[in-house]
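A protein record in our archive is deliberately plain, so that people and models can read it alike. The record that follows is passed on verbatim for readers who wish to inspect the format.
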Amino acid sequence: MLRAFARRPNAWAIAASLLLSASLSACLAGPSSALGGGPIGRAPDPRSAELLPEPDSTRGQGFILFSNRRDVLDETRVELNAAARAYERLLGARPEAASIRLTSTERDVTVDVRIGTRAIAPFVLPLTGAGRAPEAMRIASGVVLVMSREWLSGFLHDLTPGDTATGRGWMEESRLRPWLRVGLMQSVAENRLHELWLAQLGRQRDSLPSLDQLTRADACDAACLAPYGRRPRAGGENESRPAEDPLFVLEARRGGRPDALAGRALFVASSYGLVQFFSKREGASFIRELIISSLANGDVTAALGAAQSFSASPADIERQWRVWLAAYVETR
């Protein structure tokens, strides 16, 4: 039973191990990476973390960002741009325009978001806590996770304008199987950790869960989905603390190859990998049809049957997915 994904005791340690390696990759990534904070070899400027007397602002791909810390402003802009581009590649549409204000104190960052005509209740991301990643990187990852969920909620509403049930939001939409909700959100909330996931999935390709297991309605239960579905509370402790979830916090790696994926980390990585396989092979229109089909009856069989590069047979999809994943092993 894949509900065991959420219960395996070493899932957090495994996710953290993978995350450790992502930080070093980010340090070498340079300014064009979703996580790269500047040119290779450039030491961070301590003054960039100072609180500004007046907020500065910058524009990105469909959003405007305000912050009273220069490092938080720059890092969040880079990561949000990467997420907006990933959204457009995945769904063939641009995310809804947003205005985001990040107000830092010495202890935390209050995030105020307005997307189109709707506003999200302000929430707080802590600046202190476990983790060796730069503060600005952790804050940016938390903002991207929340924005990815909100962008997808807006997409869901626009896709089915007469369906009042979709007002619940992306992660609360139970007609979409957990793998589809998590896989698509991870595909928008892009970071370099995903390359490590694909490589590790490739190494484990002969022992991955079957397509039927992965796509079951109970493959990831409420506790498993909790870090993605809960909105942060206004002005206080967050319910989900998205920036501190071990699947998103970037740490400095201690060395060595990551352990095998297991538990919730395996479910999340596999969901992401399957969505990427479908996206790369079939494109944005196919992904949209998967969502529409799932909303109609919870079954994506009809949408899978329209694919050009594989049949709707689970055995054929699994075989081609594993072959596709094998290519990523050679890149790491």
Q: What stands out?
A: The first strand starts at residue 51 and ends at 60. The beta strands are 51-60, 63-69, 98-104, 108-115, 118-126. The radius of gyration is 19 Å. Residues 135-159 form the longest helix (25 residues).
